[in-house]
Amino acid sequence: MKTKEIIKRKRFIYVSRLALASIFILIAFSVKAQDNIATKLGYAANAKLLIIHADDLGVSHSENMASIEAIENGSVNSASLMMPTPWVLEVANYAKKNATTHDFGLHLVLSSEWKNYRWGPVSSIEKVPSLINEFGYFHEGCTPTVNVKEVEVELKAQIDRAYSMGFEPTHLDSHMNCLFQSEELIEVYLKMGKLYKLPVLATKQAVPEELLRKYDIQILLEEVLTIMPEEYIKGPEDYYINAIKNLKPGLSTFLIHTAYNNDEMKGMNIDNTEWGNEWRQKDFDFFTSDTCKNILKEENIILVTWRQVKDAFYSN
Fold it and tell me: How much is the pTM?
Protein backbone atom coordinates (compact mmCIF):
# COMPACT_ATOMS: atom_id res chain seq x y z
CA MET A 1 0.00 0.00 0.00
CA LYS A 2 1.32 3.44 -0.86
CA THR A 3 2.51 5.70 1.95
CA LYS A 4 -0.17 8.33 1.30
CA GLU A 5 -2.87 5.66 1.39
CA ILE A 6 -1.52 4.28 4.66
CA ILE A 7 -1.44 7.74 6.23
CA LYS A 8 -4.95 8.46 5.01
CA ARG A 9 -6.20 5.19 6.46
CA LYS A 10 -4.40 5.80 9.74
CA ARG A 11 -5.88 9.27 10.08
CA PHE A 12 -9.36 7.98 9.26
CA ILE A 13 -9.09 5.31 11.95
CA TYR A 14 -7.72 7.75 14.50
CA VAL A 15 -10.26 10.46 13.70
CA SER A 16 -13.05 7.88 13.83
CA ARG A 17 -11.83 6.73 17.19
CA LEU A 18 -11.77 10.23 18.61
CA ALA A 19 -15.04 11.22 17.00
CA LEU A 20 -16.71 8.33 18.78
CA ALA A 21 -14.88 9.05 22.01
CA SER A 22 -16.04 12.66 21.98
CA ILE A 23 -19.70 11.63 22.10
CA PHE A 24 -19.49 8.49 24.20
CA ILE A 25 -21.18 8.61 27.60
CA LEU A 26 -19.46 6.27 30.00
CA ILE A 27 -21.73 4.37 32.36
CA ALA A 28 -21.42 1.81 35.10
CA PHE A 29 -23.25 -1.46 35.52
CA SER A 30 -23.14 -3.54 38.68
CA VAL A 31 -25.09 -6.43 40.13
CA LYS A 32 -26.34 -4.04 42.79
CA ALA A 33 -27.46 -0.42 42.74
CA GLN A 34 -24.59 2.03 43.13
CA ASP A 35 -24.22 5.37 44.80
CA ASN A 36 -23.59 8.48 42.78
CA ILE A 37 -19.88 8.40 41.96
CA ALA A 38 -19.39 11.96 43.20
CA THR A 39 -20.70 11.10 46.64
CA LYS A 40 -18.69 7.90 46.67
CA LEU A 41 -15.59 10.03 46.08
CA GLY A 42 -16.63 12.33 48.92
CA TYR A 43 -18.15 15.23 46.96
CA ALA A 44 -21.62 16.70 46.53
CA ALA A 45 -23.89 14.71 44.23
CA ASN A 46 -24.05 17.59 41.72
CA ALA A 47 -20.29 18.30 41.75
CA LYS A 48 -18.46 18.74 38.45
CA LEU A 49 -15.52 16.33 38.58
CA LEU A 50 -12.83 16.21 35.91
CA ILE A 51 -9.85 14.00 35.05
CA ILE A 52 -7.38 15.82 32.75
CA HIS A 53 -5.62 12.88 31.18
CA ALA A 54 -2.51 12.82 28.96
CA ASP A 55 -2.21 9.87 26.56
CA ASP A 56 0.82 8.25 24.94
CA LEU A 57 3.53 8.50 27.61
CA GLY A 58 6.57 6.46 26.66
CA VAL A 59 6.28 7.29 22.98
CA SER A 60 9.15 9.82 23.17
CA HIS A 61 11.38 11.71 25.58
CA SER A 62 9.54 14.89 24.57
CA GLU A 63 6.15 13.38 25.37
CA ASN A 64 7.41 12.23 28.77
CA MET A 65 9.04 15.50 29.78
CA ALA A 66 6.18 17.70 28.64
CA SER A 67 3.60 15.49 30.33
CA ILE A 68 5.56 15.38 33.60
CA GLU A 69 5.90 19.17 33.53
CA ALA A 70 2.17 19.52 32.82
CA ILE A 71 1.46 17.29 35.84
CA GLU A 72 3.90 19.01 38.18
CA ASN A 73 3.22 22.61 37.18
CA GLY A 74 -0.01 22.56 35.18
CA SER A 75 -3.52 21.18 35.43
CA VAL A 76 -2.92 17.69 34.02
CA ASN A 77 -3.54 15.17 36.78
CA SER A 78 -3.57 11.79 35.04
CA ALA A 79 -1.71 9.97 32.28
CA SER A 80 -1.21 6.53 30.76
CA LEU A 81 1.90 4.69 29.58
CA MET A 82 2.40 2.63 26.42
CA MET A 83 4.53 -0.33 27.47
CA PRO A 84 5.83 -1.30 23.98
CA THR A 85 7.21 2.18 23.23
CA PRO A 86 10.92 3.15 23.24
CA TRP A 87 10.84 5.67 26.10
CA VAL A 88 8.57 3.84 28.53
CA LEU A 89 11.29 2.97 31.06
CA GLU A 90 11.95 6.65 31.70
CA VAL A 91 8.36 7.45 32.63
CA ALA A 92 7.80 4.09 34.40
CA ASN A 93 10.66 4.97 36.75
CA TYR A 94 9.10 8.37 37.35
CA ALA A 95 5.71 6.79 38.01
CA LYS A 96 7.28 4.35 40.47
CA LYS A 97 8.97 7.17 42.39
CA ASN A 98 5.68 9.07 42.60
CA ALA A 99 3.42 6.10 43.18
CA THR A 100 1.54 7.55 46.15
CA THR A 101 0.85 10.99 44.69
CA HIS A 102 0.52 10.65 40.91
CA ASP A 103 -1.97 8.91 38.66
CA PHE A 104 -0.58 6.69 35.89
CA GLY A 105 -2.47 3.97 34.04
CA LEU A 106 -1.73 1.78 31.02
CA HIS A 107 -2.57 2.75 27.44
CA LEU A 108 -2.91 -0.78 26.04
CA VAL A 109 -1.37 -0.97 22.57
CA LEU A 110 -2.12 -3.04 19.47
CA SER A 111 -0.95 -0.58 16.78
CA SER A 112 2.10 1.41 15.69
CA GLU A 113 0.81 4.32 13.64
CA TRP A 114 3.73 6.61 12.83
CA LYS A 115 5.41 6.54 9.41
CA ASN A 116 9.06 5.87 10.31
CA TYR A 117 8.79 5.44 14.08
CA ARG A 118 7.51 2.00 15.04
CA TRP A 119 7.31 -0.53 17.84
CA GLY A 120 6.25 -4.13 18.27
CA PRO A 121 4.73 -6.40 20.91
CA VAL A 122 6.02 -6.90 24.43
CA SER A 123 5.43 -10.63 24.15
CA SER A 124 7.45 -12.82 21.81
CA ILE A 125 6.53 -12.22 18.16
CA GLU A 126 6.25 -15.99 17.71
CA LYS A 127 3.31 -15.95 20.13
CA VAL A 128 1.36 -13.14 18.43
CA PRO A 129 1.81 -13.46 14.64
CA SER A 130 -1.57 -11.92 13.81
CA LEU A 131 -0.65 -8.70 15.64
CA ILE A 132 2.44 -7.89 13.57
CA ASN A 133 3.54 -7.09 10.04
CA GLU A 134 6.38 -8.72 8.09
CA PHE A 135 8.98 -6.71 10.04
CA GLY A 136 7.71 -7.59 13.52
CA TYR A 137 6.03 -4.24 14.17
CA PHE A 138 2.41 -3.79 15.16
CA HIS A 139 0.13 -2.97 12.23
CA GLU A 140 -0.20 0.75 11.43
CA GLY A 141 -3.86 0.89 12.36
CA CYS A 142 -6.43 -1.12 14.26
CA THR A 143 -6.84 -4.51 12.57
CA PRO A 144 -10.12 -6.33 13.28
CA THR A 145 -8.81 -9.69 12.05
CA VAL A 146 -6.31 -10.15 14.88
CA ASN A 147 -6.44 -13.41 16.84
CA VAL A 148 -8.28 -12.78 20.12
CA LYS A 149 -6.20 -15.29 22.07
CA GLU A 150 -3.03 -13.58 20.86
CA VAL A 151 -4.45 -10.22 21.96
CA GLU A 152 -4.95 -11.61 25.45
CA VAL A 153 -1.36 -12.88 25.52
CA GLU A 154 -0.05 -9.46 24.50
CA LEU A 155 -2.21 -7.43 26.88
CA LYS A 156 -1.15 -9.61 29.80
CA ALA A 157 2.48 -9.18 28.76
CA GLN A 158 2.10 -5.40 28.71
CA ILE A 159 0.46 -5.29 32.13
CA ASP A 160 2.91 -7.78 33.63
CA ARG A 161 5.85 -5.76 32.33
CA ALA A 162 4.52 -2.69 34.12
CA TYR A 163 4.34 -4.57 37.42
CA SER A 164 7.77 -6.11 36.84
CA MET A 165 9.18 -2.57 36.54
CA GLY A 166 7.69 -1.78 39.94
CA PHE A 167 5.00 0.41 38.39
CA GLU A 168 1.44 -0.25 39.57
CA PRO A 169 -1.11 1.22 37.14
CA THR A 170 -4.25 2.94 38.36
CA HIS A 171 -6.43 2.01 35.36
CA LEU A 172 -6.51 0.64 31.80
CA ASP A 173 -7.48 2.30 28.54
CA SER A 174 -7.04 1.54 24.83
CA HIS A 175 -4.68 3.20 22.36
CA MET A 176 -6.60 4.33 19.25
CA ASN A 177 -9.60 2.41 20.61
CA CYS A 178 -8.28 -0.77 18.94
CA LEU A 179 -9.79 -2.92 21.68
CA PHE A 180 -13.31 -1.81 20.75
CA GLN A 181 -13.41 -3.33 17.25
CA SER A 182 -15.40 -6.42 18.18
CA GLU A 183 -17.29 -7.89 21.10
CA GLU A 184 -14.56 -10.52 21.48
CA LEU A 185 -11.84 -7.89 21.83
CA ILE A 186 -13.95 -5.84 24.22
CA GLU A 187 -14.36 -8.88 26.42
CA VAL A 188 -10.60 -9.47 26.53
CA TYR A 189 -10.15 -5.83 27.54
CA LEU A 190 -12.73 -6.05 30.34
CA LYS A 191 -11.26 -9.36 31.41
CA MET A 192 -7.91 -7.65 31.97
CA GLY A 193 -9.54 -5.12 34.26
CA LYS A 194 -11.16 -7.87 36.30
CA LEU A 195 -8.02 -10.02 36.39
CA TYR A 196 -5.80 -7.18 37.63
CA LYS A 197 -8.51 -5.42 39.68
CA LEU A 198 -8.21 -2.19 37.72
CA PRO A 199 -10.88 0.20 36.42
CA VAL A 200 -11.14 0.31 32.64
CA LEU A 201 -12.35 3.03 30.30
CA ALA A 202 -15.57 1.48 28.96
CA THR A 203 -18.52 3.02 27.14
CA LYS A 204 -22.18 2.09 26.95
CA GLN A 205 -22.28 2.67 23.21
CA ALA A 206 -19.20 0.55 22.54
CA VAL A 207 -19.68 -2.22 25.09
CA PRO A 208 -22.69 -4.56 25.15
CA GLU A 209 -24.66 -4.21 28.36
CA GLU A 210 -24.30 -7.88 29.20
CA LEU A 211 -20.50 -7.52 29.23
CA LEU A 212 -20.66 -4.44 31.43
CA ARG A 213 -22.78 -6.43 33.87
CA LYS A 214 -20.69 -9.59 33.56
CA TYR A 215 -17.48 -7.74 34.42
CA ASP A 216 -19.12 -5.40 36.94
CA ILE A 217 -17.82 -2.19 35.34
CA GLN A 218 -18.17 0.45 38.02
CA ILE A 219 -16.90 3.62 36.38
CA LEU A 220 -19.36 6.40 35.61
CA LEU A 221 -18.24 9.31 33.47
CA GLU A 222 -20.61 11.85 32.01
CA GLU A 223 -18.41 12.83 29.06
CA VAL A 224 -15.16 12.03 27.29
CA LEU A 225 -13.87 15.26 25.80
CA THR A 226 -11.18 15.39 23.14
CA ILE A 227 -10.48 17.99 20.48
CA MET A 228 -11.12 17.08 16.85
CA PRO A 229 -9.36 18.44 13.72
CA GLU A 230 -12.19 20.79 12.80
CA GLU A 231 -12.16 22.23 16.34
CA TYR A 232 -8.38 22.42 16.40
CA ILE A 233 -8.42 24.59 13.27
CA LYS A 234 -10.74 27.08 15.00
CA GLY A 235 -8.43 27.24 18.01
CA PRO A 236 -7.66 24.75 20.78
CA GLU A 237 -7.97 27.31 23.57
CA ASP A 238 -11.52 28.28 22.53
CA TYR A 239 -12.53 24.62 22.41
CA TYR A 240 -11.12 23.82 25.84
CA ILE A 241 -12.54 26.91 27.53
CA ASN A 242 -15.98 26.25 26.08
CA ALA A 243 -15.83 22.58 27.10
CA ILE A 244 -14.89 23.48 30.68
CA LYS A 245 -17.65 26.11 30.92
CA ASN A 246 -20.20 23.57 29.72
CA LEU A 247 -19.01 20.63 31.79
CA LYS A 248 -21.85 18.53 33.17
CA PRO A 249 -22.21 17.48 36.81
CA GLY A 250 -20.65 14.10 37.44
CA LEU A 251 -17.29 12.70 36.39
CA SER A 252 -15.86 13.63 32.97
CA THR A 253 -12.44 13.40 31.37
CA PHE A 254 -10.31 15.28 28.87
CA LEU A 255 -8.14 13.07 26.67
CA ILE A 256 -5.17 15.17 25.54
CA HIS A 257 -1.61 14.76 24.22
CA THR A 258 1.22 16.83 25.67
CA ALA A 259 4.67 17.10 24.06
CA TYR A 260 7.18 19.75 23.04
CA ASN A 261 7.36 20.88 19.43
CA ASN A 262 11.07 20.01 19.13
CA ASP A 263 13.25 18.14 16.64
CA GLU A 264 12.50 14.77 18.22
CA MET A 265 8.75 15.19 17.79
CA LYS A 266 9.12 16.72 14.32
CA GLY A 267 11.03 13.65 13.18
CA MET A 268 8.55 11.30 14.77
CA ASN A 269 5.55 13.07 13.25
CA ILE A 270 6.83 13.46 9.69
CA ASP A 271 3.97 13.58 7.14
CA ASN A 272 1.45 13.87 9.97
CA THR A 273 -0.46 17.05 10.77
CA GLU A 274 -3.20 15.79 13.09
CA TRP A 275 -2.25 15.02 16.70
CA GLY A 276 1.33 15.85 15.69
CA ASN A 277 4.10 17.93 17.24
CA GLU A 278 2.41 21.34 16.90
CA TRP A 279 -0.90 19.97 18.12
CA ARG A 280 0.71 18.42 21.19
CA GLN A 281 2.61 21.60 22.01
CA LYS A 282 -0.68 23.52 21.98
CA ASP A 283 -2.27 20.98 24.31
CA PHE A 284 0.70 21.45 26.62
CA ASP A 285 0.47 25.24 26.37
CA PHE A 286 -3.19 25.39 27.35
CA PHE A 287 -3.11 22.86 30.17
CA THR A 288 -0.10 24.52 31.80
CA SER A 289 -1.55 28.03 31.44
CA ASP A 290 -3.01 30.35 34.05
CA THR A 291 -6.03 30.63 31.77
CA CYS A 292 -6.77 26.94 32.31
CA LYS A 293 -6.22 27.12 36.07
CA ASN A 294 -8.41 30.19 36.38
CA ILE A 295 -11.31 28.86 34.34
CA LEU A 296 -11.30 25.61 36.32
CA LYS A 297 -11.50 27.64 39.52
CA GLU A 298 -14.17 29.99 38.20
CA GLU A 299 -16.35 27.07 37.10
CA ASN A 300 -15.90 25.23 40.41
CA ILE A 301 -14.40 22.22 38.67
CA ILE A 302 -12.94 19.61 41.02
CA LEU A 303 -9.99 17.69 39.61
CA VAL A 304 -10.00 14.01 40.55
CA THR A 305 -7.92 11.05 39.42
CA TRP A 306 -8.30 7.46 38.33
CA ARG A 307 -6.40 6.60 41.49
CA GLN A 308 -9.27 8.02 43.56
CA VAL A 309 -11.77 6.08 41.47
CA LYS A 310 -9.74 2.88 41.86
CA ASP A 311 -9.53 3.33 45.62
CA ALA A 312 -13.26 4.04 45.91
CA PHE A 313 -14.49 1.14 43.79
CA TYR A 314 -11.70 -1.46 43.94
CA SER A 315 -10.46 -1.20 47.51
CA ASN A 316 -12.09 -4.46 48.60
Answer: 0.87
